[in-house]
Amino acid sequence: MQYVPQFLFILLSVVAIYFFVKKTGQIRRNILLGRDEKLTDQPAKRWRNLLLLALGQKKMFRNPLVAVMHLVIYAGFIIINLEVLEIVLDGIFGTHRLFAPPLGQLYVWFINGFEFLAVGVFTVCVIFLIRRNILKLKRFASKDLDGWPRSDANYILITEIILMGLFLKMNACDTLLQSRGYGHYAEHITGNFAFSSFLHPLLNHFSSETLVVFERICWWLHITGIFIFLNYLPYSKHLHILLAFPNAYYARLEPLGEMKNMPEIQKEVLYSMDPSSAPTTAETIAPHKFGAKDVTDLSWKNLMDAYSCTECGRCTAACPANITGKLLSPRTIMMKTRDRLEEVGKNINTNKQFADDNKTLLRDHISEEELRACTTCNACVEECPVSISPLDIILQLRRYLVMEESSAPPEWNSTFSNIENNFAPWKFSPDDRGKWAEEMV
Amino acid sequence: MQVKTMAEMMANGQTPDVLFWVGCSGSFDQRAQKITKAFATILNKVGVNYAILGKEEACTGDPARRAGNEFLFQMMAYNNIQVLNGYGIKKIVTACPHCFNILKNEYSELGGNYEVIHHTVFLQGLIDEGKIKLKEGGVFKGKKISYHDSCYLGRANNIYEAPRKVLEALDAELVEMKRCKSNGLCCGAGGAQMFKEDEPGTKRINIERTDEALATGATVIASACPFCNTMMTDGVKNREKENEVQVLDVAELVAASME
User: Fold this and answer.
1) Residue in chain B nearest A415 by alpha carbon
2) What is residue A276's predicted lDDT score, i.e. its pLDDT?
3) Domain B6-123, what architecture?
4) Which residues contact A83 (CB under 8 A, 6 or more apart)?
5) What is the pTM assigned to this prediction?
6) Highest mean pLDDT among A3-12, A100-109, A316-325
7) CATH topology for A289-406?
8) Which of helix, strand or coil describes residue A263?
9) Which residues 21-40 on chain B approach chain A with CB closer than 8 angstroms?
10) What ipTM goes with this model?
């Protein structure tokens, strides 16, 4: 009988890790459905970006107050997870506070530190819930988040509050039982911890047997909660805690203003302008479509961007089109890309390979009106704390519209013909280009 | 004062130190022509050995590329690079951030490698070298000037300080808008929006930006891009402030303050 909890714990761990690995494998497969893009040059710069942007959260500090609060949750959550190592080992070996005897007084300092962070995480999560649901900041009240995305954000905050609460209550019960000299709790006297001891007055009137039950429930719920959270990540905007790192590493290093070249068109134009440069043997590689119509036409980095998006809406709050009431919201460009990619992924799971569903990212998810509102100002790219470029996706969809469907507003079509015929976007005679110089006095 | 073309210079066996890439707006748009003339005047006064391409210049292809027409962009780029390389151009200065961005960042992959300088950076250099001499107590001394960041200069290419340093040299009082530098709000013209109507919305982007500029109480809105200049000028007219507030390019401000 005494091995039942250990067996249950190992079973729970294996199941939780199995499902997490399975789902992340699917996400990896989905990301690799994208076109190839080489993003491995200049490793030194890339490591620097990873350290500054992901680990150091540099972009978050554009708003220092929020940055510090976010850092408390982030650092707190990561560091407290060191405690999970002890929990896991205790769970496997059926021990209790395995690290206490070898660490001695150091152990108490560690736990005090964790408790400090737990209180910090708890407090900031409460503040963030208030910001989202009561203060109704514009970027959180936006209709972009209606439905699941808004609940997703709240579930994450509430889960973190519960996990921190369980951790503190567990410690409070434990130290109370120690002071009563009860059972094996008395074997490792750690003394009271800095924050959980404030819960003692609330628990003191319970019998020691009840406290043991409380302590065990908190322990199990805490670790179960962590396993559930782990498996919730891949379905949630919270996936950014993992993907922010590779996304910063693989961020484009070129100046933001530089648009990606299309070598296939460059070649075609070159051959038509200078036929002698064209290869004599016909190229057998079938050209894929120009620009992007669906997620599989985008690059793998665009797709990783979609999974990295935490839907914070800093991009949309800075977007000149969105600010002035246009349909475009860079945040929803990313959310829709992820939605469509998940749809494609599910399709592949069911049918072994992608079975045409007569849907595409363009139009079924992102409309022409949204795409045409973009001024390519790069405000969204500049703002993103996790190195996402909504602009890159917008421009590829625009390329598809114009080059594959000849779909452009009439004004653009006349701009194109002016550029082609008069070498300027307006209908002026190219001979008059230098006329201003003649007027110089 | 004469502005020479590359063809004329070549015919006389001369080589310019720098090519002044004028751009379509600066060549044809009546308002932007004034910016072009102001910049050319400065170059002439300082005695810079420069040339323009004249009839041989053509659209860089920026609006076509950003609207999605890569074919047209590649055609324009091919022809321009042929002309530039044919003349052996090494160094280019331009008053248009869109041309600047394309020439600097996007032509290199297509075989056009040049040192490209935006005119605000060029002007800052001339001021620092003492080549531009500004009048004591110039026209803009003590005046409130608010600088509007061009996206293709700022976020796109990280040029925030050069235009500001030039304005500071005018002894003007520089007032910043709430959204400035990397937070700057677009004027609404980029990405080929200049050539079409806004999509349906509640406000035009240029009006949103103009309102912000007017809120600073500045009497001059300084721009460094001919498109921004057009958009802000329209905005000021729309708000019926054209008698109190001027929209001027950094080059125009410098030209008006030179000895």
Assistant:
1) B195
2) 86
3) 3-Layer(aba) Sandwich (3.40)
4) A110, A111, A114, A167
5) 0.94
6) A316-325
7) Fumarate Reductase Iron-sulfur Protein; Chain B, domain 2 (1.10.1060)
8) helix
9) 22, 24, 26-29, 33, 36-37, 40
10) 0.96
